[in-house]
Specification:
2 copies of one chain form a homodimer. The first copy, chain A, is mainly alpha-helical and 225 residues long. The first copy, chain A, folds into 2 domains: 44-97, Arc Repressor Mutant, subunit A; 113-219, Tetracycline Repressor, domain 2. Chain A is built from 9 helices and no strands. Chain A binds a DNA duplex (30 and 30 nucleotides) through residues 36-43, 46, 67-69, 77-84, 88-89.
DNA sequence: CCGTTTCGAAACCATCGGTTCCGGTTTCTA
DNA sequence: TAGAAACCGGAACCGATGGTTTCGAAACGG
């Protein structure tokens, strides 16, 4: 309950996310080779095996079917070890998920904010089409029962992504490419809202959904004036 | 797992929903007084007490904190009785939730489809501002682990509401009040998307969110031409 | 009075998240 | 070389929970 919810670290901007095989370079560096404490050093194997197991299981079984025992077993590690390094099942699953994210540091900002915006949205939606979206949805759903998890997901994924889009929107407004009286945060909700509604009600996220959403948003619903 | 997921009944169009005290008239009528089977008659008290307990607990404790035991205890009823009439905790919670919905059969269709649309959206968002929205969100989230629950929620709440809006949209299009080339289902996602994104990420749903969403959708993001 | 169905209480079972204990191992330091 | 310190795996363990079963008692109709 009141337990801390530590994710080992991660400090990078995530935009397009999708579970991918190659691990990211997000390892801790606790002051490089500081007075190494005595005793047997932690077995990095076990650590990585657990994180890999988390990623694998997230892809293979529905979140509700993953148990602490199955995690440990899959990693070939004892449950005790798991709980020595992570405070909860959610914590390790989330860290595994984060570790597997494809970190695509958003379209490299061309001169045209609208181009960036379009590409950004396309990528975000694209990453959520298919099984990866279902995983993300499960985690978000689980956040309802585990506030720390929700916070981590918001802080590390949702908020950064929203801020990026806000930034692009403001650029576009400044360039006169969008209305000057936009309620920017609301536009962000408009952009990603359909993604959530699809994911949370179990409807499919088509590949081109993001583009269609954005196009419709731009034009508006009123008849051409 | 493979258990049936029966909700006693309910066959009404729900538009604006929010837990309210007065129970709806949704009782079964098994062919009025058909050959009454022998044996002790079921205690309607216990039934209603359980449904009430479900509604009360949904309002008082987070979904994840409601247990089958607490339900039974609150209703002053044995757990065995609960499971005699409902196949799972989720089933009774959902039925209790449905029973408590304020059934407001959508704005009585004026001549102006746009007026109806606006009112419709306003009501839907209004019902989700505040604690009722959190309850709905919890149930949707829980649907991720319980497919039958998701289906029930979609069939009884989400889909009908979407169909209503689709209908209104088509009317507005026919009346020339909206673009004729609209992707209607996508517009529906646009309209309710922000509601989901707010609910699922734990952000507040402001009272006027629906109106703002709709207004922005109508105008579009492009500078006035 | 009997058969049938319900009810409540309590015991019961399996699962799961999480902890604890123990014996054994790997490292550092003295 | 001897601790001390930290790690590991295995297994027992705990408490909570969803769900079931058993049993005796009530409520009905015939």
């Amino acid at each position: 309950m009141g337990k801390p919810f530590l994710i080992r670290n991660l400090r990078f901007r995530i935009i397009c996310h999708s579970l991918n095989p190659e691990p990211t370079q997000a390892a801790i560096t606790v002051t490089p080779e500081q007075t190494r404490s005595p005793g047997r050093p932690r077995c990095e194997n076990a650590h990585q095996a657990l994180l890999n197991a988390a990623q694998d299981l997230l892809r293979e079984v529905p979140l509700s079917g993953i148990t602490s025992a199955s995690l440990a077993k899959r990693a070939g590690v004892s449950k005790a070890t798991l709980y020595r390094w992570w405070p909860s099942k959610e914590a390790i699953l989330l860290e595994g998920y984060f570790e597997g994210l494809k970190v695509t540091c958003g379209a490299p900002e061309t001169e045209d904010a609208m181009v960036d915006l379009r590409e950004h949205i396309r990528q975000a939606y694209h990453a959520m089409a298919g099984p990866d979206g279902v995983i993300f949805a499960s985690l978000i759903a689980d956040g309802h029962a585990h506030p720390e998890m929700r916070k981590a997901l918001n802080d590390e994924l949702n908020s950064p992504r929203c801020e990026d889009v806000e930034h692009l929107l403001k650029r576009a407004v400044a360039a006169g490419q969008l209305r000057s009286d936009l309620d920017v945060p609301l536009v962000v909700d408009q952009i990603f809202g359909p993604l959530f509604s699809r994911l949370m009600t179990g409807q499919p996220v088509e590949e081109d959904l993001g583009e269609r959403v954005f196009e419709m948003l731009l034009q508006g619903l009123l008849p051409t004036r």
